[in-house]
Amino acid sequence: MSVTGPAGFRAAGVPAGIKAGDARDLALIVNDGPHDSAAGVFTTNKVRAAPVLWSQQVLHERRLRAVVLNSGGANACTGPEGFQDTHATAERVGEALGIGAIGVAVCSTGLIGQRLPMEAVLPGVDKAAAALEGSEQAATDAATAVLTTDSLPKQAQATHPDGWSIGGLVKGAGMLAPNLATMLGVLTTDAVIDGDALDAALRRASRTTFDRIDVDGGTSTNDTVLVLASGASGVSPSHEEFAELLTTVSGDLVRRLQHDAEGATKAVDITVRGAVSEDDAVRIGRVVAEDNLVSTALFGSDPNWGRIAMALGRTPAEVDVGKAEIAVNGVTLYAGGTPVAERDSVDLSGRDVEILIDLHLGEHTATILTTDLSHDYVEENSAYSS
Amino acid sequence: MSVTGPAGFRAAGVPAGIKAGDARDLALIVNDGPHDSAAGVFTTNKVRAAPVLWSQQVLHERRLRAVVLNSGGANACTGPEGFQDTHATAERVGEALGIGAIGVAVCSTGLIGQRLPMEAVLPGVDKAAAALEGSEQAATDAATAVLTTDSLPKQAQATHPDGWSIGGLVKGAGMLAPNLATMLGVLTTDAVIDGDALDAALRRASRTTFDRIDVDGGTSTNDTVLVLASGASGVSPSHEEFAELLTTVSGDLVRRLQHDAEGATKAVDITVRGAVSEDDAVRIGRVVAEDNLVSTALFGSDPNWGRIAMALGRTPAEVDVGKAEIAVNGVTLYAGGTPVAERDSVDLSGRDVEILIDLHLGEHTATILTTDLSHDYVEENSAYSS
């Protein structure tokens, strides 16, 4: 059910003609209340798209009634005119729903540096408003309308025994093509929870989920994850309970992103443990995830741990090469400063790969989800916009 | 002439049987003096190969009589045994030349995590010592023996009107395959110059040459650049003159590395100007160079400046997106926060690509040399060690 699973939400996904052909490319998600608390996390890129600037602004009071999302154009690096386009889109949603534009967040994904075809976007908003439904199909239509090179809609939902739930949708081809692979996520809940608690829970959940998928280090100009709370269940969970379930649903969505990364033939989990800090563990996981030589070796089903050791050594994190251990799919290949097993003792024939780096220096752990680097990645990304 | 161009040097490159087949894989470069000042710069990777640890140690007094280099194995992550192998190699060179091992630097390149076949290396040292010559052919043999996936030997030389010269050889497939693409460089000069001045000149030259080629962000466990001075010309250049010529020869070698990067179809110069500091300019140039989405777009001959803007925004450097300009091959595509020309007005059909990013914030400039990311890169690096 995803975003329409929790009570109080309707959704739609329609073909507005932003993309060529008749693919769905505009989604609308509406919170019918009674409450309208909301929170968001956004790209850390200094180059932020117009919809990011807008949504950060309207979230100031931590209230949202609706989110409009489009694929087919990122509306990034489009100057004041691009910002006006975002504003006009929010205004049109407001008119269609009888609410103020200030209650409408906007998300866009697609090619950077081109204006959106507003002659398609604005009628598309009306069309989506007319199609709003609380059905499962409507949620799937919305999840479909935000896709770019993704191969399938990605949704998740979890229900608490106390009678409230969290649903969500996400798009992103795992940063495999950042013009396209902006991560956009919308989570909904019918729990009763105020904006500040929602914000804290989203930041906590993101830290170990949305922030820990890293396919090629690209940070989009448009990355946005929003959470909207309707309060329609009438149940007020504890902050702890809410944050836990939000982390579960976010983790589920992120796993779907990893598995749908375009061009990838491997789903790779890099776990770093024994670090002196969680930051160090994340830093090392990321540098290994982003290393093209590790990624291409995995594409070749080669457990080339020397490349992992090399990547390990170029982080600012605390590392003692004499203590570190590297294991791939359960086989320890390097320990105590020397090789301890032959590379061919590792089976890399399957899709799932687990890399374990134990630094033996401290108590901190982090897992980064990534993929391999394949011919299809190069093909996809060299051919996309031309 | 390269390393044997300056007076006082002999070289050899022989097939020792470290690699399969009969390719040359062991090189020896000897400084016959009268002086033996030397300096070196090494990888910043925390995981340093045995030959790096050894060479850093023997350079303590800034004197070297010889350098022995091998391809076919990096001797990295090989523990104390690997260090003993390096030590034994230096000892053998010392015996063959009648000098102390402390005067012998060692460089290795190849797969990480495997011991070297010492039964091939040690007789190879004797063979190389017997083959030492001051000829041009001997220098080319040495430049050939250090190659891995490089397609051709890379040498350079420049002579000062006052009668002294600097020669050099380098290997590296431009970090395109870091197990192989260790950058090893040896520079020779017959100028009269002491170790401290040599060290300062090498650091100065490296900063704008060897440190500014970045194909995929990989920093090898084995990167080493050495400079040896024989004093055989009898001429003492000023420190300024020497550093300038060293920078010229180093720049020439680095350009050869860029053009020989395996799998690359484009030679890309990224110039960042108008930065508030040189560090900022370098940081931005590097992040753009390492961005897979920029690199794959270039492989597709697509001047996708939106990807450059995205990469720009994810550095810690000071950037104002409203002021920055991006030009590709002379065509300004982005300025004042908006697109200013169509992408198809840029001709990317040739091999050479110039990306100019003007931040309009300060007076500092840097150029980073890189390449595109091609199918051949993926092929080369997924297939190499298996």
UniProtKB/TrEMBL annotation, chains A, B:
Keywords: Acyltransferase, Amino-acid biosynthesis, Arginine biosynthesis, Autocatalytic cleavage, Cytoplasm, Multifunctional enzyme, Transferase. GO terms for molecular function: L-glutamate N-acetyltransferase activity; L-glutamate N-acetyltransferase activity, acting on acetyl-L-ornithine as donor. The active site is at residue 182. The record marks 181-182 as: Cleavage. GO terms for biological process: L-arginine biosynthetic process; ornithine biosynthetic process. It comes from the Bacteria. Pathway: Amino-acid biosynthesis; L-arginine biosynthesis; N(2)-acetyl-L-ornithine from L-glutamate: step 1/4; Amino-acid biosynthesis; L-arginine biosynthesis; L-ornithine and N-acetyl-L-glutamate from L-glutamate and N(2)-acetyl-L-ornithine (cyclic): step 1/1. One of its GO terms (cellular component) is cytoplasm. Its EC number is 2.3.1.35, 2.3.1.1. The record marks 109-110 as: Involved in the stabilization of negative charge on the oxyanion by the formation of the oxyanion hole. It is found in: Cytoplasm. Substrate binds at residues 148, 171, 182, 262, 381, 386. It catalyses: N(2)-acetyl-L-ornithine + L-glutamate = N-acetyl-L-glutamate + L-ornithine; L-glutamate + acetyl-CoA = N-acetyl-L-glutamate + CoA + H(+). NCBIfam families: ArgJ (TIGR00120), PRK05388.1 (NF003802). Heterotetramer of two alpha and two beta chains. Belongs to the ArgJ family. Catalyzes two activities which are involved in the cyclic version of arginine biosynthesis: the synthesis of N-acetylglutamate from glutamate and acetyl-CoA as the acetyl donor, and of ornithine by transacetylation between N(2)-acetylornithine and glutamate. PANTHER family: ARGININE BIOSYNTHESIS BIFUNCTIONAL PROTEIN ARGJ (PTHR23100), ARGININE BIOSYNTHESIS BIFUNCTIONAL PROTEIN ARGJ, MITOCHONDRIAL (PTHR23100:SF0). This is Arginine biosynthesis bifunctional protein ArgJ. It comes from Halosaccharopolyspora lacisalsi.
